């Protein structure tokens, strides 16, 4: 994949003008991680940055990342050509503008350490699913049969978190097939007395994920120095 010419020109012009307020955005287990990008070097259609640690460990050769800045028209998607954990230098290429919503997810969404069983109720029918991510506003749920659920319908869900059982009602806003499973995107509707349980779980799980990223960086750095 090659860079979009306008995107690459806009980014080069921005950097050559001495603007370097670039943040690199990556998601890990649902949590957004930002790291500052400094000391840009432009070589033809590739750009290298020195990234802030430890969040830089989330960049992988062959993967993608997102560049954010108030001075750019929109977030820019880039492919990672190389990353050196010792110097925290990343080489990026194939730049394209991406929709602003990519960089503007405001709700914290976390993935459980292991998928959590979900009891789904629709009318007098009951189904089973697995919680794959959750935020204060909604959840992602894996189910076996996509045809049983329709966009726009309301269901009730119950799942057990480490600090108690949470019950929520919600509207299905999207469903997508993933091999043998279907992932439902659910927006919670109304209020539930169990919302504090969800809030506490999200906060604690987010801190666990952040600690995991730090350990990942420390381990990779130690291995690279050997």
Quick rundown:
The protein is α+β, with helices and mostly antiparallel strands.
Structural summary, described in words:
- The protein is an alpha+beta fold and 226 residues long.
- The chain folds into 2 domains: 5-103, Thrombin, subunit H, CATH 2.40.10; 116-206, predicted glycosyltransferase like domains (Thrombin, subunit H), CATH 2.40.10.
- It contains 2 helices and 12 strands; from the N terminus they run αββββββββββββα.
- It has helices at residues 5-16, 195-225; strands at 22-28, 31-43, 46-51, 64-68, 76-84, 89-97, 116-122, 125-134, 138-143, 154-161, 164-178, 181-188.
- The strands form 2 sheets. A 6-stranded antiparallel β-barrel has the order 1-2-3-6-5-4. It has a 6-stranded antiparallel β-barrel with strand order 7-8-9-12-11-10.
- The chain is elongated and about 65 Å long.
- The two termini are 35 Å apart.
- The model has no long low-confidence stretch (mean pLDDT 90).
